Amino acid sequence: MRDAVxxxxxxxxxxxxxxxxxxxxxxxxxxxxxRSKDALKKNxxxxxxxxxxxxxxxxxxxxxxxxxxxxxxxxxxxxxVNLEYLARVVxxxxxxxxxxxxxxxxxxxxxxxxxxxxxxxxxxxxxxxVMLGQAMSMLVPKVVGYRLDGVLSxxxxxxxxxxxxxxxxxxxxxxxxxxEFFGPGVSQLSIADRATISNxxxxxxxxxxxxxxxxxxxxxxxxxGRSDEHINVIEKYLTTVRxxxxxxxxxxxxxxxxVVSLDLGTIVSSVSGPKRPHDRVSIIDMKxxxxxxxxxxxxxxxAAEKYxxxxxxxxxxxxxxxxxxxxxDWAAKGPYLLxxxxxxxESYERIHRSNLVGMGIIPLEYLPGQTAESLGLTGHEAxxxxxxxxxxxxxNITVTTDDGKKFEVILRFDTEVDLTYYKHxxxxxxxxRKML
Length: 436
Hints:
Layout: H1 2-7, E1 21-24, H2 39-50, H3 52-64, E2 68-71, H4 78-86, E3 90-93, E4 96-99, E5 101-104, E6 118-121, H5 124-131, E7 143-149, H6 158-172, E8 178-182, H7 191-199, H8 201-204, E9 208-210, H9 215-223, H10 228-240, E10 258-263, E11 270-272, E12 280-282, H11 286-289, H12 301-309, E13 314-317, H13 330-337, E14 340-345, H14 350-359, E15 362-366, E16 383-386, E17 396-401, E18 406-411, H15 416-423, H16 427-435
Parallel strand pairs: 1-2, 5-6, 7-8, 7-10, 8-9, 13-14, 14-15
Antiparallel strand pairs: 3-4, 11-12, 15-18, 16-17, 17-18
Helix pairs in contact: 6-7, 13-14, 14-15
């Protein structure tokens, strides 16, 4: 982007993080040495040798850009590093206090919700725009209150709990919503338990799985080496603005869009799968439920090459929760490079819809009750998508096929900002033009 801005006659130094940006290098170290005291050191040395050019580039980046902290490999997994070291809970900018918040390029950024920090995952494309000062845009979400009562059995783990919650919330339907946990059962959960539940937020489909700060959160900050001075600032600030929660005091319970509940005492040992985390099965039911899962291979390479050669724009017809399974930004970049220009789905996972918009791919959604099957669509048709020049977020538009079918779909540009990105051919094109 700096090169592009320079070629267009502007100052390349404009391309610089506006907000604090932490780049954590994790999942990086391969295991070549084991069963020795210096195994970790040797593996780290091998890692630096293998990826010398990458680390030189990162070292340059740390010096070339302002507001950027690079956490080197071997420091830990990104979400754990955020939980134990990076999260402030309350920002103190020269005496101006405000709640901490974060967006991250991994869907499990929500793990930090367990410490009382509001945060969620976004696509890498969207994160780049945020770093450059572009505000996040989203619809005002509904907030689902999830009441926890009782105490976990000694035979149940936090994994059993989160699998139960995941299945429950998938049944409730919380895609695009905030989930906030409350009730006396929360006080029985450690920060590790809460972080486990928040970490699985992408699997139950919500934008966040939030646990407000309580005394247990403050104790965790002390355990992980935060200064007493900063912890005192956090406690006084949150108390003053009435954001410090006592989960045993029902008078502090907020008013939610809707409320669901769970008794921790009902949690039993579970397994999940074979395909999705919310396909939970109790251990005692596993024998009856056991079955094999086979998948058919689909070779799309030859088809993609042919369509690219013919310069044929492509459309994808899919079902529910398109993009689920922690889709990375390449799940949008790859289809775009293959020539995909639109998707029609029954529903979308939040981050993937955002990534599609960021790449200039049009996300369309069937009307309630309609599917590709109910409309008789096979994928062998040619499609004409009529998008008005003055279209509005969420409006219905008409799709026509070459065999005479005509049906309406919802244009899933959810905000005016989404429309702006689409008109510019994607978020990065927009950001470059904005800076000129």
